[in-house]
Write a structure and sequence with these properties.
The protein is α+β, with helices and mostly antiparallel strands. The protein has one domain: Ribosomal protein L17 (50s Ribosomal Protein L17, Chain: A), CATH 3.90.1030.10. It is 48% helix and 22% strand. The strands form two sheets. It has a three-stranded antiparallel β-sheet with strand order 1-5-4. A two-stranded antiparallel ribbon has the order 2-3. A hairpin with a 6-residue loop joins strand 4 and strand 5. The longest helix has 21 residues. It starts with 9 loop residues before the first helix and ends with a strand. The relative contact order is 0.19.
């Protein structure tokens, strides 16, 4: 299928799609024009499929590290396998990195404790929340795909552009 031009040059169109895909994956729902929603749906489905197909690929290894007293300790480390690492890098090359925000009435120390190991919160959310959720859904329903839903909302006031809401199912 050919990509829609959306009335923009390639660099602007790609920046728009990357931003909207990142926002959709972070918040779960966005409102945009129908044509943009269809393109965002296409890219989001590709990203989620990559994550679903590779999220279980991990490698466990045991490393020897020194503790504060100078003693050797064996630590089990779980790293991404080759397939998951390639998928993670491909996803990171497309989406924008959205920073984690402090929750309401959360102290600075508890926020730092919650996010100190997370360098790319959106990528972690894709692999740790969405991939297992949609993989289980696919096993229950029996088919993959259909991770997003586009609902038409009617024309926008001002220019009568067809508006739509796109959301993760």
């Amino acid at each position: 299928m050919e990509q829609r031009k959306l009335g923009k040059p390639t660099d602007q169109r790609m920046a728009l799609l990357r931003n909207q895909v990142s926002t959709l994956l972070w918040y779960g729902k966005i409102e945009t024009t129908f044509e943009r929603a269809k393109e965002v749906q296409r890219e989001t489905e590709k990203i989620l499929t990559k994550a679903i197909n590779s999220y279980l690929d991990t490698v466990k290894k045991v490393e020897t590290r020194k503790n504060d007293k100078g003693q050797d300790i064996k630590v089990e480390v779980i790293n991404d396998g080759a397939k998951k690492l390639a998928a993670r890098r491909a996803i990171m090359s497309f989406i924008y990195d959205i920073p984690e925000l402090r929750k309401e009435k959360e102290s600075a120390t508890s926020f730092r404790a919650r996010t100190h190991n997370v360098k790319h919160p959106l990528v972690e959310k894709i692999f740790n929340e969405y991939a297992p959720k949609y993989d289980q859904r696919a096993k229950d329903v029996g088919n993959y795909g259909g991770y997003t839903r586009v609902l038409k909302m009617g024309p926008r006031r001002g220019d009568s552009a067809e508006m739509a809401v796109i959301e993760l199912v």
